[in-house]
Design goal:
Blueprint: H1 7-22, H2 27-55, H3 71-96, H4 103-129
Helix pairs in contact: 1-2, 1-4
């Protein structure tokens, strides 16, 4: 979660952390939650864009390519293009500040999972040989 850059790695780390923490393997719950949040945020983007256009005064028509570029359009475009991602980044930093996983902790989690798997496999083989 705190150590990688791709979403799939974040999900894999979250799945491994939950397996180590609770003993439950829940990849469907993690990926389903991620998918739900991703779809909610993505659908909210249309509301933000529509609201921004309405704030500029386009209540009965949409902006056209032939419309003159005003300072209001310029600043609204800059705030949507750079401001919202910056706000999202700050929110992510605040949320991740509480993240208990570091690179070292994730290595320990993976070691503990490997030990649990080896113990379970050993127990399985002992039962099969009896």
């Amino acid at each position: 979660m705190c150590i990688t850059t791709s979403n799939t790695s974040y999900m894999a780390d979250a799945i491994d952390f939950e397996l180590d923490r609770s003993g439950r393997y829940v990849p469907a719950v993690v990926s389903g939650t991620y998918s739900l949040v991703d779809k909610l945020i993505t659908s909210f983007a249309a509301v933000i864009a529509t609201g921004a256009v309405a704030l500029l005064g386009y209540t009965t028509t949409m902006p056209q390519p032939t419309d003159p570029c005003t300072s209001a359009i310029f600043w609204m475009t800059l705030s949507l293009k750079f401001g919202l991602p910056l706000i999202g980044w700050v929110i992510t930093l605040v949320a991740m500040r509480e993240c208990p996983l570091t690179k070292e902790e994730m290595v320990n989690v993976q070691k503990r999972i490997a030990e649990k798997k080896a113990a379970a496999q050993s127990e399985f083989y002992k039962k099969q040989l009896q």
